[in-house]
UniProtKB/TrEMBL annotation:
The protein, known as: cAMP-binding domain of CRP or a regulatory subunit of cAMP-dependent protein kinases
Keyword line: DNA-binding, Kinase, Transcription, Transcription regulation, Transferase
Transmembrane segments: none
Domain of life: Bacteria
Alphabetized Pfam families for the sequence: cNMP_binding, HTH_Crp_2
Amino acid sequence: MSREIYDKILSTHHRRYFYDIEKTIDKFYNIFGDDFKKVLYLKGEEIERENIKSKFFFLERGKFAIKHDNYMGRDMICSFVFPGEFFNFSVFTDESTFKYEAAINSCVYLIDKDKILNYLKENAEFRVYIHSLIIKSMDLQMIRQGYTSSGNHRHSFVSFILEYFNGYSSYKDGQVEVELDVNYQEIAYLLNMTRETLSRIVNEFKDSGIIESGRRYLKILDLEKFCA
């Protein structure tokens, strides 16, 4: 049963579209050359406001938190970005209310919005290609917004781990091994929960014999119960 569940997650999860990162980078670099610029953001750094107003972003490596002011005027994380995804869609509507913070050290490619919009007008094939990636990226970030704001912390954690199945996991003898690029403090931050809350959830899974875990490692011993 666990193998069937694992294979179904691999074949149906939205993240299955985002693992040919090198191909995407090569395609954009061949079109836009040096205008497709790579920038390193260290953990905790935010993308500059002037870039949010004028650039479109592609995450090559790392994790980015998408932040927005809440009703108290304080920043809160409303979603996040995984590698292979585009973000800052508000640039196309001249809205700039979101902030983007590197949750871990991250590599981002920036492209001027006018350059990509002009090329979209000229090239129908590229327009179909980029629209597909944009829609899939937006879908994922909206799904994450749903589970980070739901208040169901256990579901949020499970959903987060499932995002790693395509590309970062392996199945052997009924168990799933997941390699993480974030620690549990960083996971808690991205999921809008305290480290203590996440520790309680992880310990409940451990005590029930469902998982084993390390700092950047998770082994799922019973996938059916983990997903339940």
